[in-house]
Amino acid sequence: MASIISTTLSKWLSSPSRNITIAIIPVLLALYRVSKKPTRPLKVSKTGERVLILGASSGVGRTMAKQYSARGARVCVVGRRETLLLEVQSECRNAQDAAGSRSEDIIAIPADFTDVDDVINIRSVLQAEWGGLDTLVVAAGVSALQPLMAVAGVEATRDNQLKDATKEGIQHTINVAAAATRGNYVGPLLAAITFIPLLSNTSKAPAVVLVNSVASIIPAPTRTLYASTKASSLVLYQALSIEHPDITFTFFMPATIEGDFRASAVDSGPVRELDPNKHGLKREDVARRGIQAADNGEKAVFMPITMRYAHILYWIWPALIERVAKKKYNFGV
């Protein structure tokens, strides 16, 4: 009987019309979630909301800190570079002044979110200063920009022949992969272990926002290490959302964003794609959408929305998405 069911299901799933039907289901569910009236602001006031942002010294994290501050939230900004953090703290206070919602609760903590002692110290500060936490934003991470074989020092020749990677090249790739894993997986893992109990025990409507990337669900050339390590943290938090149903998890997956995120690359070499400062999403728009998603209790958020359909289309017509990805990243040998 089991074999009959398996065979029948396999045939049904392999039918093109069935694939299209299945693809529509996530769209309908997304529309349903958007239509639901958000309840979180009724439990956690926007003014006074206790927000921790990991990776707040630059990029989307920095912009989210200013936007949260402008509406009167208590914000703790965390990053490795103290000078930049002090700038962010000042910007957050200025944003509160401009909005007429001044609060003294803008905390800046220089820390490495992949270091256990540093993260425990952050938790201790929040317990002492705020007595808990409402919202955790994980916006920290590192980039990696090269094809895997290029990291190993192996380049294709004109006749498309690959030379063997040297021992040094292999070891270098392992070191780069370890750095990417530490920044994009170990850090989010450590944050989850440290702050989930605090969120669950002290907030009426706890929320976690993982600022991830569309690269974690739609494969792209030159993003091998970056995409795979971001995908690992995505699945980690997806599983955690099942294990901790009292916490609302938002998986935020934007496309290329303007800024200098590529300066954090753990590998080296040429950047093949178009200038993100000319063609990328605007940081202010991305930050605003992330905050909105947390307020509304949205689960999976794509930006732009077309990426949701591209993700679905990848499983129906992978060759098309792969062709578009090659063009976007100017990839070819």
From TrEMBL:
Assigned keywords, A-Z: NADP, Oxidoreductase
Keyword NADP among record annotations: yes
GO function term, MF aspect, one: oxidoreductase activity
Signal sequence residues: none
Transmembrane segments: none
PROSITE patterns: ADH_SHORT
Superkingdom per UniProt: Eukaryota
Biological function: Putative oxidoreductase.
Name listed for the protein in its UniProt record: NAD(P)-binding protein
Organism: Psilocybe cyanescens
